[in-house]
Amino acid sequence: MSSRSQDNAAAEAVQRRAVYQMKADFFRILGHPVRVRILELLRDGERSVGALQNELQMDSSGTSQHLGVLRKHGILEGRRDGTSVYYTVRDPRIFQLLEVSKQILTSSLTESQAVLGELAGAE
């Protein structure tokens, strides 16, 4: 392999690792139950920080921290209206991701339930 080919292969490997890291970071950001709940609440549209705080039953500091993480990473966008801030999900495909994850979990739990039922019947 020529030096140029080795350099190209090394550059591609670095790029792949960067993409894997970005994907891992994305899932890490979504990996908190409060953040998933925020996204689920925003499925029906824009909500104010106060409404989200009320639904989450969290104080303003905790709610703001989670909203800030989601906003910083481009998952949410906010708009100010007077003294209120309203949030929406930037890319509606996030709801597809949540739905697919629900389907995967439901399938897995259904399979586990079937196995447990077989085990219980074997006694």
Describe the structure.
This protein has 123 residues and is mainly alpha-helical. It folds into 2 domains: 3-90, Winged helix-like DNA-binding domain superfamily/Winged helix DNA-binding domain (Arc Repressor Mutant, subunit A), CATH 1.10.10.10; 92-123. It contains 5 helices and 3 strands, in the order H-H-E-H-H-E-E-H. The chain has helices at residues 3-30, 33-41, 49-56, 60-72, 93-121, and strands at 47-48, 76-81, 84-89. The protein is flat and about 60 Å long. The termini are far apart. The mean pLDDT is 90.
Helix/strand-derived category reads mainly alpha
- Please mark out the parts with pLDDT under 50 across 5 or more consecutive residues, or reply none: none
Give the full name of the CATH homologous superfamily of the largest domain.
Winged helix-like DNA-binding domain superfamily/Winged helix DNA-binding domain
Strand content: 5-15%
Total beta-strand segments: 3
Q: Give the CATH level 1 class of the largest domain.
A: Mainly Alpha
CATH architecture of the largest domain: Orthogonal Bundle
The whole-angstrom Rg is 21 Å
- What is the count of structural domains? 2
Report on the biggest sheet: 3 strands, antiparallel
Which overall shape is indicated by the principal axes computed on the Cα atoms? Answer: flat
Cα distance spanning the termini? 62 Å
The CATH topology of the largest domain turns out to be Arc Repressor Mutant, subunit A
Overall mean pLDDT stands at 90
Sheet with the most strands: spatial strand order: 1-3-2
- Count every helix, treating DSSP H or I runs of 4 or more residues as helices: 5
- Give helix and strand order, one letter per element, not per position: HHEHHEEH
**Roughly how much helix do the residues carry, as a percent range?**
over 70%
